[in-house]
Amino acid sequence: MVFSKYSIEMKKIILIVVFLFSSISIWSQRNQIIAYMDMEYILENVPEYLKAQNTLDSKVAKWRKKLDEQARHIEVLKSDLANEKAILTKDLIAEKEEEITVKQIELRRLESLYFGPNGNLFTVRKQLVKPIQDQVYNAVQSIAKRKNYDFVFEKSSDLVMLYSNKKYDISDLVLSTIDRTRLSEQKKEERNKKRTAPKKEATKVQQERIAQKETQKNKKLEAVTKKIADQEAKKKQIAEKRKALMKQREEKRALLRKKKEEATKKKEEEQKAKKDN
Predict the structure, then answer these.
(1) Residue 36 bridge partners (DSSP)
(2) Distance (Å, rounded) from C-alpha 58 to C-alpha 61?
(3) Considering just the CA atoms, what is the radius of gyration of the chain in Å?
(4) Helices (H) and strands (E) in the chain — how many of each?
(5) Cβ neighbours of residue 185 under 8 Å, at least 6 residues apart?
(6) Whether 30 contacts 148, CB under 8 Å
(7) Is residue 77 included in any domain, yes or no?
(8) Do 236 and 132 belong to one domain?
(9) Which phi and psi angles does 32 have, rounded to 5°?
């Protein structure tokens, strides 16, 4: 562990020496403009980052609670097995030990799923923090181009800053650039909302005109509806009269057929009676 720390310190020192020599070499050709920023300070003053951090903390707390519950459950199973081992058969002991093993494997799987190298913590942090990092990166790019900076360093990076003059700290400038960008996007969003938003409430006179138009429209609609209803009623009345007339005609025809049949029958009976006589 000591050797590892020593190696890291040596690497930092070598990196600083290389950087200093490179800077001296370049400085001999022309004056360089260098600035630095404090990423931690910037993020602490970006509302989106604080919100993202709270969201991440909430998820982490939920994951840890689930892992703790499962770990406690495993401990309970182990304790129960230890207490009951004397009265259990070998098969039951093996079965309970297998259950504990399965639970432990599942616990390790969940730990890896939540906090592994490519787990949920890594993925969620990337999703939440990347847009904010992009904001900072874009702000730094804009400032560096505008101010003609040759280098912009991050104060908390591996490159140790043995001395830093506050006048070269552009952290507040980065924050103000992010704020301006956010304000610009908010105004753009408000303009879009105004374009898609419904029109403002009409004045009293406009409301009266609208009401009159609606009344006239309703009256016309009522008149058309009444006209259609009258036409339908007339059609229905005509159909009913026609149906009644056809019924009367059919009744008359049936009556005539009946009379004709009765007359024919009577005539046949008379002829038969004559023959019999």
Answers:
(1) 153, 169
(2) 5
(3) 48
(4) 7, 2
(5) none
(6) no
(7) yes
(8) no
(9) -100, 145
> In this structure, what DSSP letter does residue 32 have?
-
Q: What is the mean pLDDT of residues 151-175?
A: 69
- The closest of 224, 136, 217 to 182, measured between CA atoms, is 136
The whole-angstrom distance between residue 63's C-alpha and the CA centroid of its chain comes to 22
Partners of 152 in beta bridges: 35
The span from the CA of 73 to the CA of 19, in Å, is 54
Chain centroid to CA 241: how far? 65
Residues 175 and 240 in one domain: no
230 shares a domain with 192: no
Judge residue 171's burial from the number of C-beta atoms within 10 Å of its C-beta, 0-12 exposed, 13-18 middle, 19 or more buried. Answer: buried
What is the average pLDDT score of the chain?
78
- What pLDDT was estimated at residue 58? 92
CB-based contact 188:73 (threshold 8 Å): no
CA 105 to chain centre: 33
The verdict on 168 and 233 lying in the same domain is: no
Tens digits of per-residue pLDDT, 92-117? 899 989 999 999 999 999 999 999 98
Within 10 angstroms of residue 234's Cβ, the number of other Cβ atoms is 10
The DSSP code for 223 is H
**Domain that includes residue 7, residue range:** 1-32
pLDDT band at 14 (very low <50, low <70, confident <90, very high): very low
- Reported residue count of the chain is 277
> Is the residue at 138 inside a domain?
yes
